Request: fold
Amino acid sequence: MSSKILIADDDEMVRNAVEKILYLFNHDIVAVQSGYEVLDNVDDSFDVIILDINMPDLNGFDTLELLNKQKCDIPVLFLTGQGSMDYAVRAINLGAYDFLTKPIEDIELFHIKVKRAIEKRNYVIQEKQHKQNLEIEVREKTKEIAQSNVLLEQYGHQLENATVQIMASLQVAMEEKDEYTAGHTLRVTQFSMQLGKKLGLDDEELLVLRRASEFHDVGKLVIDISYIQKPGKLTREEWVLIKKHPEVGASIIKPLDFMEREQQIIRHHHERIDGNGYPDKIGGSDLDLLTRIITIADSFDAMTSLRNYRRNLSLDEAISELRRCAGSQFDEALTEEFIEVVSVPSLR
Reply:
């Protein structure tokens, strides 16, 4: 199957030469003479972009910067007659895939680099498909739970409790796969309930708080556990996938009509008071009181629990970190109330 390649070079002779070489290898070619034409013509049908660096009006570097702003994930090969360390550093920083030198003397090497870029593009496309399949899987799981709503209406609270117990078991099973997250949900629930009782919440509020705490991470059920267990820094793609778990969790809970409020709390448990959290970037009074409680409890347990990539903080260190982030990440008043809770040995 032929690949589609976009070439940009203001030199017609070079452009024609590259075009002819690629035709020899049965690629489909679109050739333009400026960076602006690249921006006008590029779409997801292309597998590789070959950019001349020194073009008038809009050079190759500037063109790639604009492509990056458009979130274009097509591999870019720079075509240049003069290479330098400054060029290489700038190209790497911009995310260029490789360099091609002109004039092209080694046609085989030239095509090997193009083929590698095509392979990279195929990998990116496969990853997109994987994410789409994941979304389909979530929808299917949501549909399955929605179908159980008929039974929920028939059997009322008895079946509600059974459903909650099953989901809690699934989440516990998920956490037990990783020694570093085992017990996290139980501790977050305990911390949240202790703070809720200290605040004088009524029984109905406490029930919602308990359920939301128990299922705040249920979205991780459909995320590859290797991402969570991975030592060291996550890749951008892995981090984007993990950050989906509040939305996924809310989607899983959504068909359960009796947990409508819990659904929103689960969706927003990684939001911040200053509005810089995710997924909806809401903050302040727009955040449910129970959401603000769970956010503090969840972060405190993460700080004080050992992870495979860092040590756990001591109680004093965690309290200092909570206070440092109060007013930006956490509700200030609730933070002080929570610190009183965890400072009492009998409550920890």
